[in-house]
Design a protein that fits this description.
160 residues; alpha/beta; two-stranded antiparallel ribbon; globular
Length: 160
Amino acid sequence: VQTEPGNGTAFRIYFPVLKHETVDAAHQDDASGSDRGKRGNILVIEDEEMLRELLRSILTARGHNVIFANDGEEGLSTFVEQKDGIDIVLTDLGLPKLGGEEVVRRIRDVSRTAKVVVASGFIAPEVRDELEEMGVNYFIQKPYRTAEVLKVVDAILSTK
């Protein structure tokens, strides 16, 4: 905690960084029995840097190639440019510039068969129904849990 009269107070919280060996072991425990042989190219559309880093750690430790976009417009543009090389799109719903629902809608305009995973802390039932009508069959609850992310990714890649 750092405070200065008239200037305010700043709180800093420091967390330890896990080494890849520790992350790898955790991933193996969390996803025991899953198909570890499948590797994929995953477009992650997430505006929160800390969550991007978490997903990078989870997915690259499993051997996946991860492409990041910081907002909906960048995510859509990246998908359009690289659609043939992207196996999975994992998008947050609450994105700046272009919301997650609209990103999914426009991805569907480009590709009816793209594998799309939607992540959110809360998805209203009517929004979920609309996303399912657009062909989204995979949803991940935020905050991200390693086992859940890997289970969904493995399930999608095993059907390819």
